[in-house]
Amino acid sequence: MVLSDISMPGRDGFDLLGDIRGLGTDAGGGVPVIALTAMVTDLDSARIANAGFQACLPKPFTAEELINLIVKVLNRANHSSKR
Q1: Fewest Cβ atoms closer than 10 Å to its Cβ: which of 31, 48, 67, 77?
Q2: DSSP designation for 6
Q3: Cα distance between residue 29 and residue 34, in whole Å
Q4: CB contact set of 83 (below 8 Å; sequence gap of 6+)
Q5: Can you say whether the dihedral through the CA atoms of 13, 18, 20, 21 is positive or negative?
């Protein structure tokens, strides 16, 4: 599981996601990635989903919201890996 902010100094979460996916599945490139962001428009959410993030959590969020989303994403990943 990777948690990545979308806006970071010098690069962004989309760059990081591209680097992760570029590793290939054998090297961990298929790991679930959740985007954390203050950008919450429908257009931003669509761009995040289309980029390959498994979920997006808008800021501000609570620890409970983060934990619930992590569990949900990991359960989805675990379920799809059993197919």
Answers
A1: 67
A2: S
A3: 14
A4: none
A5: positive
State pLDDT tens for residues 38-80.
977 888 888 998 999 999 999 999 999 999 999 999 999 888 7
pLDDT score at 72: 97
Residue 37's identity, in one-letter code, is: T
d(CA 64, CA 72): 12
Cβ atoms of 44 and 37 within 8 Å: the answer is yes
Cα 61 from Cα 29, distance rounded (Å): 27
Q: What element of type H or E holds 4? A: strand 2-5
- pTM score, two decimals? 0.88
